[in-house]
Design goal:
Layout: E1 6-9, H1 15-26, E2 30-35, H2 41-49, E3 52-55, H3 61-68, E4 73-76, H4 87-104, E5 108-112, H5 124-139, E6 143-148, E7 150-151, H6 155-158, E8 167-171, E9 178-182, H7 184-196, H8 198-201, E10 205-208, E11 211-214, H9 215-226, E12 230-234, H10 237-243, H11 245-256, H12 263-269, H13 276-282
Parallel strand pairs: 1-2, 1-4, 2-3, 4-5, 5-6, 6-10, 7-9, 8-12
Antiparallel strand pairs: 9-11
Helix pairs in contact: 1-7, 3-4, 4-5, 9-13, 10-11
This protein binds NADP nicotinamide-adenine-dinucleotide phosphate.
NADP nicotinamide-adenine-dinucleotide phosphate binds at residues 11-17, 34, 36-37, 42, 57-59, 77-80, 114, 125, 148, 150-151, 154.
Organism: Planobispora takensis
Protein name: NmrA-like domain-containing protein
Keywords: NADP
Length: 284
C-alpha cells in the first residue's frame, strides 16, 4: 500500500469488529475504532494495538457522521441480543452506519450480514440483515456484503465443562445435521482482504465459512482435541422455544435448511481458513 488508508471499524470491542481491526492493523491499515466507552478496557486494548478509538454510538447518527469523516472504508456490524431481540434497533443501527458512510462518500463499506440472507428463513435476526443489505443496495454506496455462518467461538459458551469424565451438551439439532462454521479470525482475514482488493470485492455478497461438520462430528472433534469423551443430547425444539424463541427459530432453520457457503471454493482461495479441528487446537 502506498499511502496508509483508514478504516472505521464498528463493533471493534466485540468479536467480529475486534478480529477485523486486528487483521487490518496487521496489514498496515490505520484503524479508527468506534467505541461507546473511550475509557473502557476494550478501548484501551484497541489503543494498545495501534487503533484510534473514537467515541460514538450506533444509535447516534451525528456521532457516526463525525467518526467516518476522512476514512477510506467502514466495517459495519450490529449487535443482536437473541435473548431479548430488538429487530427494529438492529435495522436502524445498520441504516445509520450506511447513511454515514454514504454521506461521507467512503470508497468501501463492508457490511457483515449472515449466511441465511435471501433464503426466506423467517428468523428475525436474519431478516434484519436482509433489510440492511437491501438498504445498502438502494443507497448505492460501494459495498461488499460478507455473510458469515455460525461462529466457532459460540462453542466457548455452548459447550459445558467436563463432569464425571465426560462432556455432555444439549442441542436442538439432529446428530446428522451439518453445521457450517467460521472462526472470527477468518472473518477478519476475509474482511481485510475485501478492503485490500476493492476491484474484486465491491458489489459482491459472499457467504463465508471455514468448515462444515455434522453435530456428531463436532462431538468427535471435541473428544479428539483433548481426549474427554463428548456427546450431545438432543434438546426438544419445543423446550428450547419455551426458553428462547429466537434461538429456537434459528436452530430449527439449521435443522431444516442450514447455511450454504461454498467451503471448498473458499478454502481454495484462502488455504489457511481454520478448520474446526485447528480452531479447537488453538482454543483448548
Ligand atoms: N454468533 C454467530 O454465530 C453469528 C453468525 C453470523 C452472524 N452473527 C451476527 O453477528 C452480530 C454480532 O457480532 P459480534 O458477535 O461480533 O458482536 P459482539 O461480540 O456481541 O459485539 C457487539 C459490539 O457492538 C458494540 N455495540 C453494541 N451496541 C452498540 C451501540 N449502541 N453503539 C455502538 N456500538 C455498540 C459493542 O460495543 P460495547 O463494547 O460498547 O458493548 C461490541 O463492540 C449479530 O448481528 C449476529 O446476528 C452472529
Amino acid at each position: 500500500m502506498s499511502e496508509t488508508k483508514t478504516v472505521l471499524v464498528t463493533g471493534a470491542t466485540g468479536g467480529q469488529g475486534g478480529a477485523v481491526a486486528r487483521r487490518l492493523l496487521d496489514g498496515g491499515w490505520a484503524v479508527r475504532a468506534l467505541v461507546r466507552d473511550p475509557d473502557g478496557q476494550g478501548a484501551g486494548e484497541l489503543r494498545a494495538l495501534g487503533a484510534e478509538p473514537v467515541t460514538g454510538d450506533l444509535d447516534d447518527p451525528r456521532s457516526l457522521r463525525a467518526a467516518v469523516r476522512g476514512v477510506h472504508g467502514v466495517f459495519s456490524v450490529q449487535p443482536a441480543d437473541l435473548t431479548d431481540p430488538d429487530p427494529e434497533a438492529e435495522v436502524r443501527r445498520g441504516r445509520n452506519v450506511a447513511d454515514a458512510a454514504e454521506a461521507a462518500g467512503v470508497a468501501h463499506l463492508v457490511y457483515s450480514s449472515v449466511g441465511a440472507v435471501g433464503r426466506g428463513s423467517g428468523v428475525a435476526h436474519f431478516e434484519t440483515k436482509a433489510e440492511i443489505e437491501a438498504y445498502i443496495d438502494a443507497l448505492g454506496v460501494p459495498a461488499t456484503v460478507l455473510r458469515p455462518v455460525f461462529f466457532m467461538e459460540n462453542w466457548l459458551s455452548m459447550m459445558p465443562r467436563a463432569r464425571n469424565g465426560e462432556r455432555v451438551a444439549s442441542i436442538a439439532l439432529d446428530p446428522g445435521t451439518p453445521l457450517q462454521m467460521i472462526a472470527l479470525a477468518d472473518i477478519g482475514r476475509i474482511a481485510a482482504d475485501a478492503f485490500g482488493r476493492p476491484a474484486e470485492f465491491v458489489g459482491r455478497k459472499i457467504e463465508i465459512a471455514g468448515d462444515e461438520l455434522t453435530v456428531r462430528q463436532i462431538a468427535e472433534a471435541f473428544t479428539s482435541a483433548d481426549g474427554v469423551p463428548t456427546r450431545f443430547e438432543r434438546q426438544p425444539i419445543e423446550e428450547l422455544r419455551a426458553a428462547a424463541g429466537e434461538v429456537a427459530n434459528m436452530f430449527d432453520w439449521f435443522d431444516r435448511k442450514g447455511y450454504g457457503a461454498d467451503v471448498a471454493a473458499l478454502r481454495e482461495r484462502y488455504p489457511r481458513l481454520l478448520t474446526f479441528e485447528a480452531w479447537l487446537r488453538g482454543n483448548r
